[in-house]
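To whoever is on call:

I kicked off a structure prediction for a single chain this morning and the downstream step that reads the tokens threw a length-mismatch warning. I double-checked the sequence; it's 146 residues and nothing unusual in it as far as I can see. Pasting both halves so you can look.
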Amino acid sequence: MNVRILVDADACPVKDEVYKVAWRHEVPVAIVSNSRLRVPDHPLIERVTVSDAFDAADDWIVEAARSDSIVVTADILLADRCLKAGATVLAPTGKPFTTTRSAARSRHGRSWPTCVPAAINSAARRRSAKSIDRHSCKRSTLRSSA
């Protein structure tokens, strides 16, 4: 499984929740920001500090976004660019962005920490032809797609 979470981190209020989900499901995370942020010292967590140029973090995230990526951002324009790249995009509230550029209400009404595993499954499903339980929002570990 090559799922990766990309976080637009400069103003992200749920970084701690992202770390917990990443550790639970063993999914790598890239924390992307214009300034150096404190992140846990863990092999799954990568700190990416870009220049302070306008939209530098957004540009980096869009270049890294693929169909098996999950992007966490509150930026509607970045969400639109990532959706066009094929990524799953979640607002900090856990609600998925749609191509209509608005954060849609989760059809199951899940909170952020429980909605992300479903997004991980969805991204992995797009990456692999093998079936992964699409309704998994429990603390179970993901099946390997290998």
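Update from on-call: the warning came from a stale cache, not from the record. Cleared it. Sanity check on the structure: The chain is about 30% helix and 15% strand.
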